[in-house]
Amino acid sequence: MTYRKYCRQSVSVLAGFLLAASLLTAGCGSDRTPVSDTSLPESGISLPAEESQADSEPESGAEAAVITLTKSIDSADGSMRLQFPDNWSDMSGFMSTDGSVEAAYPLRAGCPEEAAFLLACCESREGSILSDVRDYTETLVQGMTASSLFSDVQMGQLTPISLGRDGLSGYIAQFTADSQAGRVAYTLYTAETETAFYQICCWTSNAGAGSEEAVFDTIAGSFEVLS
Q1: Contacting residues for 54 by C-beta, under 8 A, at least 6 apart
Q2: CA–CA distance, 20 with 18 (Å, rounded to integer)
Q3: Does the CA dihedral 209-62-84-227 come out positive or negative?
Q4: pTM assigned to the model
Q5: Residue 56: is its pLDDT beyond 80?
Q6: What is the CA angle 226-8-206, rounded to 5?
Q7: Mean pLDDT to the nearest integer, 126-131
Q8: Across the strands, what pairs with 225?
Q9: What does the pLDDT average to over 151-178?
Q10: CB < 8 Å & 24+ apart, contacts of 89-98
């Protein structure tokens, strides 16, 4: 199996799981308290200087809110670790009767009360025809947004970042799409080492995207390579 074919298979599993889990977003999260800002872990997510400066200016009268990470979850394959707020939990086995999600995404977590979810995986670069993390990110995004499960896809900007405690080179991509459950917002974080690509895919209802963005950034910022 070629790497790009494997990537398409991985995308197919991801898209199906995202749609299934997005059903939980219907009617959820309408009373959530918006988060205006957050403090990321050291070397969490760094944007290019010009974008970081623009994004760091708080709105007039806005109060910064700190998102506290209280628990760690390691991927089942031992490749990575993420930290989460107290109301998030390990969702291993959730919505995966055939084990396909576990095979493709060994780290699964979520906060059903907030209708916010996450999948993460590590993919070896051995035999890969993808040249770098940008190519990897674009391949994932193209596969996800082209899925027949979604319609009226609206793409955000693909932005280079330094991700995690090791400041790995990567990208953040965002898009919204209509599904059977309504409009859902997705945020994809990617990173690379010399031997592997990493992806962290987060999603929530479009209505709750504003309040969950800082939470997703904080969790992804805690990313740590284990092996």
Answers
A1: none
A2: 5
A3: positive
A4: 0.80
A5: no
A6: 80
A7: 89
A8: 80
A9: 94
A10: 91/117, 94/21, 95/17, 95/20, 95/21, 96/17
Nearest-CA neighbor of 59 among 37, 31, 40, 33? 37
Residue 110's DSSP bridge partners are 89, 117
Residue type, 136: Y
Answer whether 161's CB lies under 8 Å from 140's CB: no
CA-to-CA dists, residue 122 to 34, 78, 172, 195, 207, angstroms: 31, 10, 16, 10, 30
- Largest distance between two CA atoms of the chain: 55
Three-state SS for 142?
helix
Distance, first Cα to last Cα, the chain: 24
Which is nearest to 14 in space by CA: 81, 90, 106, 131? Answer: 106
How many CB atoms are located within 10 Å of the residue 104 CB? 19
